[in-house]
Write a structure and sequence with these properties.
The protein is 30% helix and 23% strand. The chain is globular, with a radius of gyration of 23 Å. 42% of the residues are buried. The longest helix has 19 residues. It is of the alpha/beta class. Strands 1, 11, 12, 13, 14, 15, 16, 17 and 18 form a nine-stranded mixed β-sheet that branches. The chain has two domains: 244 residues, Alanine racemase (TIM Barrel), CATH 3.20.20.10; 120 residues, Lyase, Ornithine Decarboxylase, Chain A, domain 1 (Beta Barrel), CATH 2.40.37. Strand 5, helix 6 and strand 6 form a beta-alpha-beta unit. The chain is built from twelve helices and 18 strands. The termini are far apart. One of its GO terms (biological process) is lysine biosynthetic process via diaminopimelate.
């Protein structure tokens, strides 16, 4: 996407606006599949929570992807986008037995991550295939909020509780067809991840009828120039070889499964905002924009860094700015950042806005959520309308006096 393309999007659809590039998503999907080309049976289940727009799901379906879902609503989105139930896995945390049963009735693969629900579901539905999510107690992830494989995590069944799992499976006679783990997002050390996979392989030996092993995801993407990222090619070489050896020893066909979200869509996204005010104080120059953490909360929530470019004046002299939003509390996108000289009315573009950005947006301060646009086939397609006041009050009910 060129600056001209992005400025045309703002011209046609206003700001703030999220813009995604279909070609980038395709390239990332192909990069991951090529890295594991040595594996005979590979399946990528896109993590819907990263970016759940129906048009994005539809594009990924066309690439051959399945879906990883964490709520019944995400399952319904997947079905609406045209995925068949057998191409969807449901990996919730802390949901009711009723929700799991409702999803199972749709024919979706169930993934259970606690002993209580495992026993209840196995007792009532022993014939339904179930995957088990294991917590390997391996710390991975770039932030404590997104590291989910450590010993204090609420996710997964502790590897130390495997004897309890085996007892439940034996007592209920339930059908375990998959083993799963997810250590966290922003994996930096390939060897740490591979170490965790060995724990999963050892666990898989305890089950005789597996059809797949799911290694989660969490592959790191670069957020700035020179930033490190997960070496997918190295991982593909190391894990692919190890998986093939295990599958041969297991003596039954096994599918290697991943659930990438950020890796597929993060770099495809740009978030475009307009500068309302350039405000000089005694120590800081603020660029105040027509958005806030109601639209992009990651910098405030995780301390994540999104590169910011002035696409209205890309060749301007660089100055230092703090880019802040219009929310009525501390609302900072970037502190003291070098950006080409900014004037009021300029359009700023945030990089890496494809994952966990729009999906975490809200109506805080009663602001509308922005539009979404997909660049596909060289054309800009509106894939979500900007909200209106009618949308804001659609489900509110006034008490009759």
């Amino acid at each position: 996407m060129t600056n001209k393309d992005l400025l045309n999007v703002v011209k046609n659809y206003g700001s703030p606006v999220y813009v995604y590039d279909a070609d980038t998503i395709t390239a990332q999907y192909n990069r991951l599949t090529n890295a594991f080309k040595s594996v005979k049976q590979l399946r990528l289940n896109y993590a819907v929570k990263a970016l759940s727009n129906l048009s994005i799901l539809q594009h990924l379906k066309g690439l051959g992807s399945g879906l990883d879902t964490v709520s019944i609503q995400e399952v319904q989105l997947g079905l609406k986008a045209g995925f068949t139930p057998d191409r969807i896995i449901f990996t919730p945390n802390g949901v009711s037995l009723g929700e799991i049963e409702e999803v199972a009735a749709m024919g979706v693969q169930i993934n259970i991550d606690n002993l209580s629900i495992l026993e209840q579901f196995g007792t009532k539905h022993p014939e339904t295939p179930v995957c088990i999510r294991i917590n390997p107690h391996v710390m991975a992830g770039g932030n404590t909020n997104i590291s989910v494989g450590h010993i204090d995590s609420k996710f997964g069944i502790s590897i130390h509780q495997l004897p309890h799992v085996l007892r439940i499976v034996e007592n209920t006679g339930m059908n375990i067809n998959g083993i799963h783990m997810h250590t966290g997002s922003d994996i930096l050390d390939i060897d740490v991840f591979v170490y965790a996979t060995e724990i999963l392989f050892e666990t898989a030996k305890q089950f005789s009828d597996l059809t797949f092993i799911d290694f989660g995801s969490g592959f790191k993407v670069p957020y700035k120039e020179g930033d490190i990222e997960t070496n997918i090619e190295e991982l593909g070489e190391k894990l692919g070889k190890r998986f093939n050896a295990f599958a041969k020893a297991y003596k039954k066909p096994l599918t290697l499964t991943f659930e990438p979200g950020k890796f597929l869509v993060s770099e495809s996204g740009k978030f475009l905002v307009q500068v309302n005010v350039v405000k000089q104080t005694t120590s800081t120059v603020f660029a105040q924009v027509d958005s806030g953490f109601n639209h992009l909360i990651r910098p405030m929530l995780y301390g994540s860094q999104h590169e910011i470019h002035n696409i209205s004046n890309p060749n301007g002299r660089e100055r230092f700015y703090s880019v802040v939003g219009y929310i009525c509390e501390t609302d900072t996108f970037a502190n003291n950042r070098r950006i080409a000289e900014i004037s009021e009315g300029d359009i700023l573009a945030f990089d890496n806005a494809g994952a966990y950005c729009f999906t975490m947006a809200s109506n805080y301060n009663s602001r509308y959520r922005p539009a979404e646009v997909l660049i596909k086939g060289g054309k800009a397609h509106l894939i979500r309308k900007r909200e209106t006041f009618d949308d804001l009050i659609a489900n509110q009910v006034l008490i009759e006096e």
